[in-house]
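User: Assemble these into one structure.

Assistant: Restating your components, then the assembled model:
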Amino acid sequence: MLKSNWIRYTIVAGILLLFAVMLMLMRGGGKNAMVSGLPNEAMEIARSRELSPDDVYAALATYMPTGRPDEYLMFASGGHSGQLLVIGVPSMRLLKTVAVFTPEPWQGYGYGVMENPLQEKYPDSAYPPADTHHPALSETNGEYDGEFAFIGDKTNGRVAVVDLRDFETKQILSNPVINNNHGAAFVTPNTEYVVEVSQYGVPLGNKYVPIEKYKEEYRGLVTFWKFDRKKGRLIPDQSFSIELPPYWQDLADCGKLASDGWVFINSFNTELATGGMEKGNPPFEAGTAENDMDYMHLINWKKAEELISSGKFQKINNFRVISLKDASESGVLYFAPEPKSPHGVDICPCGEHIVVGGKLDPHVTIFGMSKIKQAIEAKDFEGKDVYGVPILKFDAAKVAQVEVGLGPLHTQFDDQGYAYTSLFLDSAVARWSMGDCKFKAPEGDWKMISKIQTHYNIGHLAAVEGDTVKPSGKMLVALNKWSMDRFTNVGPLLPQNLQLIDINNTGESMRLLYDMPLGVGEPHYAQIMKAERLKAFEVYPEIGWNAHTQTQVDPKFAGGKGTVVVKGNTVEIYTPLIRSHFDPEHIEVKKGQKVIWKLTNLERTRDTTHGLTVAGYRIGASIEPGETVTFEFVADKEGVYPFYCSEFCSALHLEMMGYLFVKP
Amino acid sequence: MLKSNWIRYTIVAGILLLFAVMLMLMRGGGKNAMVSGLPNEAMEIARSRELSPDDVYAALATYMPTGRPDEYLMFASGGHSGQLLVIGVPSMRLLKTVAVFTPEPWQGYGYGVMENPLQEKYPDSAYPPADTHHPALSETNGEYDGEFAFIGDKTNGRVAVVDLRDFETKQILSNPVINNNHGAAFVTPNTEYVVEVSQYGVPLGNKYVPIEKYKEEYRGLVTFWKFDRKKGRLIPDQSFSIELPPYWQDLADCGKLASDGWVFINSFNTELATGGMEKGNPPFEAGTAENDMDYMHLINWKKAEELISSGKFQKINNFRVISLKDASESGVLYFAPEPKSPHGVDICPCGEHIVVGGKLDPHVTIFGMSKIKQAIEAKDFEGKDVYGVPILKFDAAKVAQVEVGLGPLHTQFDDQGYAYTSLFLDSAVARWSMGDCKFKAPEGDWKMISKIQTHYNIGHLAAVEGDTVKPSGKMLVALNKWSMDRFTNVGPLLPQNLQLIDINNTGESMRLLYDMPLGVGEPHYAQIMKAERLKAFEVYPEIGWNAHTQTQVDPKFAGGKGTVVVKGNTVEIYTPLIRSHFDPEHIEVKKGQKVIWKLTNLERTRDTTHGLTVAGYRIGASIEPGETVTFEFVADKEGVYPFYCSEFCSALHLEMMGYLFVKP
């Protein structure tokens, strides 16, 4: 007993001693420690030594002991996996892949369950692939509220709505006017709108027009999808678009506080290049990069709402669109010059500063909302573009430029006055100080402070609540596109590398904490939210829950018994699910009959999910406690088809089965 | 300089001190430390404190610093995700989801690329869902050789082949005789065969027969798929099945060394229960659990090969099947009684012992191959079952029983003489000592040693190379079915929990190291291999590589230029891919024309993958360095469709695009 206590005190003391040493190192380590993220000798020792269970035990005792929940949740797009990823931070563990645009049988998504948007939209199972880019968490007063997530599909110009009560996709909408996007999704500060911005110029309304008419008939588009929070749906009839020139609109961010009511979009290809290298034209990569300045788009969406209210719109494919002419002449759309094929526009926590990453220019350029408003008021324009859009003078909108390094893309903010910009070509994150903002870094305004290497080719980055009005600081995740030599080689298609970076301390003290390989897609953008904001269901609130509508339906069970009702050529089956049997266990139909099969999980214990698969038929469901799902199919194949519970629900899980008999 | 060195030495000393303390704890910690996996005070301190970046930094410096590769790779089934998961051990990081039965756009799998088995098998995109259960790594002399992985789909009775040079699925086969499986896949010691065993009794050949004829006309099946290692394919013409009684065959394992030439299958439902609770029959969960003993199936596959060679088979759906009668009468099939609805049969490293988990019995039962052979020789039978299969006497086959706890399922082995059995109902792993085996535990033969709690409801477990002839010991992963309260709640469908357990030391010293949530499916079984065994490609060996056949094809580029060839109503396009443009950038076709589009990635740098998606069309590819892929589609929708590179390949990645013009 005495010995045992002594040992426990010793381990605690040992851990504390190690922290003290680390702390000393951190304060005194200087540049060398910063760049690699670890002092070189310690790194070499750690790398070269075979990792023993003792090492793992010692480390994980302080890091992630069993049962410790994560403080933050990262919502990352799955890139061209088409999904949304939910990752615990700081543990960097994948808590859930939310099926959005791609069928996912574990979640019973896209395999015949009638109550999901993929089935609704593509009843023939020919789901197009998606390239999810920017997830957006719903906001209230510019802070995440933990209720919904939205995400865009670049390939096909779609947006989707995910309900964070059950982490399931509730709606998928295709843009009726344009067939691609990039800057999607972003939300206004109270989630009035979900913003979707096109990438590549095309003829609006999906018609064929020769490329020679690019300037005249190809266009860009920004769409404001009205969100009904109570319904949990985007409402097309209350939404609208604004026609834009066929520059390549790129990323967007919604204004907040000082810039509330505005949306900002960076663009490139103001050259109006149309490619065609096979015809001797410059390829797009050259043709789009000639101009020294492109145009940041400033969009006054409150004024756009007024135009819509006053009927100043046309309809394309039955969707309301404000014309480029009306937008330019009514104060809805302005341009501000921005250097050179920029990629990324981000609004600071107080809403005053708009930060644009230069991509082909080593600076970030900071614009000021007060200056922009003054310049608009004073009509301080350098002229108009070829489409008649007023262009502010660069110096009339610009507040500062900070030279940060090669390939600056995206910027996030902390609670200590720093901004963090990803540097694609440098494979690094730059920390620099904001000026004239809510938070103040000790180094003063608009100063480059330090860089930390990432591995490799960083795209986006995400700090904790780093694009809200109240960033949390502490940690940042670099979303690196290449991992090269970081992990055990698992073939020519390599995982991405999400690196956790400590940004807790001021000055040159960023530290690389952890590499998270992710072999399930190419995460593009992410947002990190405090986990405590979530109000997720543990089980569905009532038995007979329709997860699609989030309402209770009548599960039609008399005394919890299964029933079969034959109506002409249709067989309706009502099956309650409880450990560990189906009721009925025998389903007998004639070949050619239509089957409507409704299954309800009667369980109230957390994690007691039942699944369903049926041999030979394209049927797959995940039915969480309380949930009701429906299948409709024609029994078109004669034979004996076992069905069973596909979630390991009890010791008698294998016995939870039945037969679908399809008689000749 | 001096100061900096001092700091570095101090941190190294600090780390070493902590290890020393941990070591002392480990040796003296006793029972209390074992059960929870961490000493309670340290655990409480760790859990209650907000995790600071310093904590993470300190822990990860020794655990998983950037750039440290994993020593082991775990290949886990994705359960009803339908995929195969590759996880680094000990870091428990998801390195890759290998798309097998489910389309996966990140890997360009199932979205129109002609060179993949999903497209080959289901050209209409109506892919059925799968429930992957047991991955099997290819073996040479009973050791993993790092070349191939095989995996079964329980729902539809399919098996798939994955080539570990590029971690891509090369073949999917449906069993021609039976429409479901469970014990699949398992390999013989030199991967002569991949074994697939059915689960639920059905009429063979997929015909309709009333359930009343269950005993007479429903059957089980074991299939031996011949594997051609050079081709990397299963060869149906060289494969065969053996008809089995309609007991529910369950899990299988292939004999090795002392038991080479045999396959072992546990079974339950020797009651021949047929369910139908809605008719007043006992539900399956009751009807299948009445007998105290079920039958382990002993299959002599070398003798079965002789029957096949001598023409003793029938053909069902053109597939060779040895009849139950011939199998019973020719020494191919024997039964040994096994207690009570067992789940799991596992062969020890020396091949002598067959361990069966009781599921509804608290024991594991150990059978001996020498005793079995003697009993067969001596015809020491207790009789025959109703189908004429000779049944060995229990005591003539049994070597020992060890009481391990409630719900014993599966067993793995280490290099110190211990076996590890998962206990579903206890939510624990039992360590017990083997007897009369290659390795000797200090506690002596057939003794229960200790248990460690898991969280919760463990199914399978996997030790490092724990089912080969040379297990490595050290670490074990518990594949828990429920996670309940372990992680931040992300809705009613919870992640699985894979727990890493230290088994490095003898006696009562198992320790819980780490919880890995996994929100991408329900991993069922896993195998863990030394990473050094792999010979994965870093890039494809030659430009113009067909990954499906693993051979070079003619990419048809004159001087690396794109070409377009119009042949009647078909447009053939040859596109080289290199950072950062397509050639051609304009693809012009008439509505209704057939397009054959061949794309080749000319890059030779690792990780320089290019992707392809096309707005409006169901097209998605991931084209790794050197690879050639082909799409064939009809341009049936008029309009202007941007296509672009969907992998972030360079700073000008967004500019790597083109247009598909479909003219009226």
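Chain B has three domains: 2-63, 72-272+281-533, 545-663.
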